[in-house]
Amino acid sequence: MNTETYGTHLGKTKSSEPSIGPIDSGHNFAEQEALILKPKALEPLPSWLAWCDRNSKPVKRVQPREIRILTPWQKNGPMTIRDWKHFGAWASFRARPKNPKLKRPAKPFCAAKYLPCALRKRQLDEEELRERILMLAKPRKITEKYNTPDQPPAYSPAIPWGKPPHRDPGRPFNPPYVPDCFPTDELEADFWAQLRFPVRQAALLGKTTPRIQSLAKPRVYPPTPHCPVPEKVLHPLDVPPPPRRKFTNRGWRMHQIRLLYLSKPVFRNEMSFFYRQM
User: Fold this and answer.
1) What pLDDT digit, counting tens, does each position of 209-223 carry?
2) For burial by CB atoms within 10 Å, which of 6, 189, 222, 231 has the most?
3) Is residue 81 helix, strand or coil?
């Protein structure tokens, strides 16, 4: 058997022949296949291992259980019907809010008998008391009912669209004084001829806009249309008869119906073509 020894870190002996061979029943391997193991020295455990084992465990905190002290109305088990009746009778009498009695204010100290605090209250009869109440209830000064004057609304025209009305403080102005009657017609004519209305400076500097000019013009009825309106086309049956005596109203209507019937297209049957050829 040609054997070749190779140097390895395990000191293993190898051969050029295959290593497959019969295995002993006692599991006794050949010396060539045996491994030479070096014994390892036991190293000491690190110092931090014991600290990690001790601090990695959860802390067990012991909490002492409090002893529950039951009140007179508490018990370990559920309340019975008798207990509920007893509790209802107790609550209806004990659980109601107390109505504290109001203490009377202390009587003020009076230093002398001649002071008003020392005088006794006069006891009035029922009739005198009623008269006294009516006299005190009557107002000292009776005034007439106030009637609000009927003031017309202030002049506030809405000239531009979409804007609030302009409040003009000078409108409405007071009308001029006009006498109730005139002795003669000449005096009345002179009065109206000499009457002048005051004009404000703001009105003299104002400029009229096309909108105000259109509002100042009188309305025209019927209003002028924006575009020409075409004449209404009457139905043939609604056309009045011509001004002549040839047709009556009924005859003219029958004539119009006859014209409508004759103006419609003629729809002939397909077989009528063959019968016409024959």
Assistant:
1) 898 898 888 888 888
2) 189
3) helix
Dihedral (C-alpha) 155, 173, 217, 202: value to the nearest 10 degrees?
A: -90
Interval 50-77: pLDDT, tens: 899 988 988 888 888 888 888 776 777 7
Q: What's this model's pTM, rounded to 2 decimal places?
A: 0.19
Q: What CA–CA distance (Å, rounded) separates 18 from 35?
A: 18
**Amino acid identity at 57:** K
DSSP E strand stretches across the chain:
3-4, 14-15
In one-letter notation, the amino acid at residue 243 is P
Tokens describing residue 231: 């004449």
DSSP-assigned letter for residue 243: S
Which residues are 79's β-sheet partners?
none
Please, which residues have CB within 8 angstroms of residue 253's CB and are 6 or more apart in sequence?
A: 237
Find, among 27, 29, 6, 2, the residue nearest to 16 by Cα.
2
Q: Establish whether the linkage from the previous residue to 222 is cis, with ω within 30° of 0.
A: yes
pLDDT of residue 150: 67
Report which DSSP code applies to 205: H
Sign of the torsion formed by the C-alpha atoms of 152, 154, 158 and 163: negative
Pick from 232, 234, 233, 236: which is nearest to 262 by CA? 236
What are the structure tokens assigned to 6, written together? 């190779």
Structure tokens at 33: 């296949």
Please tell me the distance from the alpha carbon of residue 41 to that of residue 244, in angstroms, as a whole number.
Answer: 150
The two three-digit tokens of residue 210, written as one number: 């096309």
Dist. CA 273–CA 271, nearest whole Å: 5
Taking the CA atoms of 214, 217, 219 and 223 in sequence, report the sign of the dihedral they define: negative
Q: What pLDDT score does 16 carry?
A: 56
Question: H helices within 44-125, ranges in order?
Answer: 48-55, 81-94
Radius of gyration for the chain, computed over Cα atoms and rounded to the nearest angstrom: 65
